[in-house]
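Lecture 7 notes. Example A: sequence first, then its structure tokens.
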Amino acid sequence: MAVFRPDDDRLERAVDVLETLGAEPVPDPMLAVNATGTVPRTDAEYVVFTSKTGAALVSEAGWEPGDEIVCAIGPATADALREKGYAVDLVPDEFTSSGLVTALESRVDGARVEVARSDHGSSVLLEGLDDAGAYVHETILYRLVRPEESGRSVELAAEGDLDAACFTSSLTVEHFLEAAAERGVREDALAGLADATVGVIGEPTAETAASLGIDVDVVPAEATFDALAHETVAAIPSRSE
């Protein structure tokens, strides 16, 4: 069962979760983090974080908030911010970009909102806040690239030896297929995924997968890796029969 978390504690934890569920993990980090060293602007009334990585990087860069209302996309990001000593004022009920928009749209008309995230963030958040009347500025805290060594899962898929895959973002889908194309097995890898159980986090990831020819079997209602892992493992045919 392939998992595509960055090669840090998130990948280790993902492997632990899958092993606890009785799956055999195939860790294949499709994302690496290149920090930019930037921090959120100081003139914002709201600062929005969309990942644990962002929380760690602003701490390392020495960010010191003032009176901003600090928003986190979900509990994992909120916990990471708190661990670094930052207060978190808002976490949406739905842990997605659209969930953040829903939580903020009645509050931010005329307000300055700083969105601090990666260079591959969803346009849903910026456009939604802009439509709500906010003055939106985006700070790129880090860039996401594909590690050169990635691709073990691609080869297994192409050989028909992959039972399931857990994609956590649109970029992991794109990087998987890039790795397959580099190896000259893109079509075989797609065929392998067609025979596997494919789980993804969030509708944007599902839409990306579908647009690239990947059929998605599982989109958990809760946008967390734990939910993705549990529901994807449960949906593997040999386990659900």
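Example B, a different protein, same format:
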Amino acid sequence: MADTVAELKPRIDKTLEDLKRELAKVRTGRASTAILDGIRVDQYGTPTPLAGVASINAPEPRLITIKPWDKGVLKDIEKALREANLGINPMNDGEMIRLPFPPLTEERRKDIVKQVKTKAEDHKVAIRNHRRDILEALKAQQKDKKITEDDLKRFTKDVEDKTAAGIKQVDTIYAEKEKEVMKV
């Protein structure tokens, strides 16, 4: 009953966190170490997160430096970065790897905004799917006489309000990222 409705907020929050995590990986004009989060390096035959084999820094707005703790994995790190297709050419100087971020062209910025919009729309669909699941559960409970019709209407309104708030948050997150990408 009410616990079914209570499940919605954590599900929406989880979806919003996933969106934020996804958008952190999207390349903007500035260097962000979050773009490297999903990269795994084959360290002595074991796939290891990049942060587990090297120190990652962004000393300048358009540069990320990666300094491995063991210089023996430098080539493996470089290979993993190339395979990740970041659109950035890693520069290996034997001590560390530098990832210089070239300024984005207007056309590239528009492409990135389209990608961001697609991710935002996907997350809106996920929130709507959560709403659908909760409403179906409520209707089943009403059919089984576990809740009254009045309860169903009240819970439905609550679900709709929470869904609308979640979708509004997705729009806000999208607008912030769009502004960040289009900033020259």
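Note on Example B: Residues 106-143 form the longest helix (38 residues). The domain at 33-100 is CATH 3.30.1360.40 (Gyrase A; domain 2).
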